[in-house]
Design brief:
4 helices, 3-stranded antiparallel β-sheet, globular
Length: 123
């Protein structure tokens, strides 16, 4: 099942894609360097404070969401404003949502539509 995406819905969705089950927000070292520069933090301090190693990959940390029903939140989600604190330099994984390979499965598209108000099935 194919879908369309209207990014204008992001302004009012409450950051649903940044909240939920525990998982990984993978990023490359070059993305970590961009975020640390954006935050004006030395790279080593940034990685110690915000990164966890997962096998041979790197992931941003998550934190328990302020509302326990929401599960976990990206460490860079401002839960009061529902805004990403690193939006201009957010990882590629965040930039490409909802066009992830896992959402090519028709069953997953239905879940995606329930999660993201910007996603509309084409069929």
């Amino acid at each position: 099942m194919e879908f369309s995406f209207d990014p204008r819905a992001c302004a009012s969705c409450g950051a649903r894609c940044c909240l939920g089950q525990e998982g990984y927000i993978f990023l490359q070292p070059v993305e970590m360097e961009a975020i640390s520069a954006f935050l004006k933090l030395p790279f080593e301090k940034f990685t110690l404070q915000y990164i966890k190693k997962v096998g041979y990959k790197y992931s941003l940390l998550e934190k328990p969401a302020s509302d326990p029903k929401e599960g976990y939140a990206c460490v860079f989600l401002d839960e009061e404003t529902k805004q990403c604190q690193i939006y201009p330099v957010r990882p590629k994984q965040c930039q490409t949502f909802p066009f992830w390979e896992c959402f090519q499965n028709p069953k997953k598209v239905k879940e995606l539509c329930a999660l993201c108000p910007g996603v509309k099935p084409l069929n």
